[in-house]
Amino acid sequence: MRNVHRLTEGAILLALFAILLGITLYVPILGTVVNFFLSLPFMIFAAKNKRKDAAVFLIASLLISLIIGTFLALPLTLAFGLTGIVIGDFIRNGKPRNTAFIAGSIVFLFNLVIVYVVTVVFLSINFIEDSIQLLRESIEQSTQIVSSLSLLGEPDEAMIQQLYAAVELLHTLTPSLFVLFSFIAVFIIQLVSYPILKRLGMKVVVGEPFRNLKLPRNILYLFILAFLASLIFQPDSGSYFHLALSNISYILQLLIIIQGFSFITYISYQKKWPKAVPILALISIMLIPIVLYIVWILGIIDLGLDLRNKLTR
Questions:
Q1: Which residues, in sequence order, are CB contacts of 86 under 8 Å at separation 6+?
Q2: What is the Cα–Cα distance from 96 to 102, expressed in whole angstroms?
Q3: 235-293 pLDDT, tens per residue?
Q4: CA–CA separation, 246 and 233 (whole Å)
Q5: How many whole angstroms from its chain centre is CA 225?
Q6: Do 14 and 108 lie in a common domain?
Q7: In this structure, is residue 296 part of a structural domain?
Q8: Are residues 195 and 212 in the same domain?
Q9: Are residues 191 and 110 in the same domain?
Q10: How many domains does the chain contain in total?
Q11: What does the alpha-carbon distance between residue 251 and residue 8 come to, in Å, rounded to a whole number?
């Protein structure tokens, strides 16, 4: 009887996945939103069944994706399917949401890297290099258009160099952007999926609230070491050492900013400020550079001096 129930539930969830995948692939605007719901059927099945059954469910979903979207749909199914199974398995074992988030992000990142390597090695398609080259050509064409219009005068050379520098920085930080994209994607997946899982009666362990986030102090020490290494060795732009240092520094700075925002939410909660304060702070971080810098400093002080405990004693 249990096997019949499992097969019926699996068939329903596979049908749901097929509908979601079809919308993602063939309905442009709506598909962008529905894309983040692809992991939901896998979460539900993995949260209720053993890993072996979840693996069979994944194989069946891959066959369905071949029918609906050919081989191009396989990477999408693998990325969201494996991520959903990992998060669902953590839910089944009673692991907190934060732990499931980290595990899911690592799995999503692994899939992202594998897809990139496969497209470069076997298909000779490097979408990163192609996108960077397209940006360079766009800047060059825009410069030529401005130069040809005599009324506008000659383009500002300093601004052009800044644009080229921004493109090169984007190229250098590609590994960090992979990591950032993976964490943002899994965050959205959990954000849209967990309320549905709760409505279905599944027990989801929330874990510690974000305001209590306290990253290891070693992050601050690693950032200082990376900063000193860049000053002392001054690696050539484009070298592997420069690439490694730039990406390590970027990820560590991002973690420090997250710590700074966590400090703001903690103080806001302790002082009983309106809930709109952290939201406004987050919007300001994204839009106003000076606010981002202030939050980064707060993160450094909180990591180094345990600022929140000093202020709430």
A1: 46, 100, 103, 104, 107
A2: 10
A3: 777 677 777 888 888 888 888 998 988 889 988 888 888 888 888 888 888 888 898 88
A4: 13
A5: 25
A6: yes
A7: yes
A8: no
A9: yes
A10: 2
A11: 44
